[in-house]
């Protein structure tokens, strides 16, 4: 029998990996273009949307995860696994905020050098935050998943 939560957990991980990769793309393209064109702005918005989708999937899983996984971690796993469990939600939220702000600043900044620099920094933060969030999720899922 296929467990719907386990399938959703895998989809969440795959979308998260795509979101992380897509957050790196604006860092590279914004750096290489003097005035970001419509394709660069589109890729920035798509990165933000993928990050939002991953966050939304994680949010849907969160209540079941707290009921089915967190008590097991409290009873059986090392203390640091619980730390990773709590940390991944916080870093995921900040990653989402960074990607959304990066897209908005790039879009409305219309090529201004400060807007490009701010957007690039926010997407770099989203990329690094996404890597940290994914690592936290992998650590927790390797100990106990659905």
Please, could you describe this protein's structure?
With 146 residues, this protein is an all-alpha fold. 88% of the residues lie in helices and 0% in strands. It is built from 5 helices and no strands. It has helices at 4-32, 38-68, 70-76, 79-109, 113-143. The chain starts with a helix and ends with a helix. The model has no long low-confidence stretch (mean pLDDT 88).
How would you summarize what this structure contains?
Helix content is 88%, strand content 0%. It is mainly α and 146 residues long.
Topology (SSEs and partners):
Blueprint: H1 4-32, H2 38-68, H3 70-76, H4 79-109, H5 113-143
Q: Which residues form runs of ≥5 with pLDDT under 50? A: none
Order of secondary-structure elements: HHHHH
| Biggest beta-sheet profile | none
| Terminus-to-terminus distance | 13 Å
- Strand percentage, roughly? under 5%
Oligomer: single chain
Mean pLDDT: 88
Helix content: over 70%
Number of E strands? 0
Number of helices: 5
**What is the overall silhouette?**
elongated
Q: Given the helix and strand composition, which structural class is it?
A: mainly alpha
- Our Rg estimate from Cα atoms comes to 17 Å
List keywords for this structure.
single chain, about 150 residues, mainly alpha, about 90% helix, about 0% strand, elongated
